[in-house]
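Appendix B. One record, verbatim.
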Amino acid sequence: MAKEKRRRIIFVLGLTACFSFYMPIVFGQTVQTFTDRKDILIGEQIRLKLKVNLPLQSETLTKWITIPESIPHFDMVEAGKPDTIRFKDDSKAIEQTIVFTSFDSGRWVFPALPVEFGSNGQSPQILRTDSFYVNVSYSPADSSNQLRDIKPIIKVSVNSYFWYYIAGAVLLLLIFGFLLYRYFKKKKQVPPVTADSSLSPFDEAMAALKSLEQLNLQEEVEIKNYHIRLAGIFKIYMGRKQNKNLLNKTTGDILITLKDVPLPAEQLSVLATALRCTDAVKFAKYLPLPPESKDCRKQVQDVIGDIETIKRLNN
């Protein structure tokens, strides 16, 4: 009775083993695993190539190899995309390359990975890749025990940039001074209006006003020179009439000095307009048109003529 029971158990186990061995052949699939190395130093990489062959057209791959998110003792570096290769006999192969490494020293097992197949309406069958051992070790220690010379002390030269900073500062000062020199040199100095004692105040003023006609009122510098000299001509004229130095006086001060001259209000307003125009040109960079500049000169000339007429009448 015991022998009969033992025979049944052996028969079942043998049938199961045959069936398990025969299943891949029925479906025709094969799963291959290739590695470029199995012994690495800590941090080195291993390239694992997985290949699945599908010889028959009727066979289908229902689920590709499942790569776990984490594998004990191993770190995944890169998982390439599956690549399908087709052959002339309608068979095909699917390949995928996985790169991984390990930072734990020891002998570790890289696990088998499942892949699922199906064919002719049968229930899916799961095959697994081969598992394999990976030896992870440190770099071998130097066993030669050779003594090595101590390297001599290397002299390190410390570079001081103090004098470079001094030279740069001096150079910047020279450039700044040169720019200031060029700036002030380019500014044309307006020739001062001086009195000519050989002429009367009136004749001197008329001659100076006549000389203004020689200036070109189309150029910015000449326009500024024209109005500055125009204001100076009137200040010198009034200064000689009153025996005062009025060159440094403002337009408001000049108008106050005319309180002793019984000029009509209209003429006083005309003079104020002309002098304020010269101030705008000098201080506000106002550039009047040539007719406006000529009108200012004529207004000053008319006021000077009116002052002379009033003086003669009063005398």
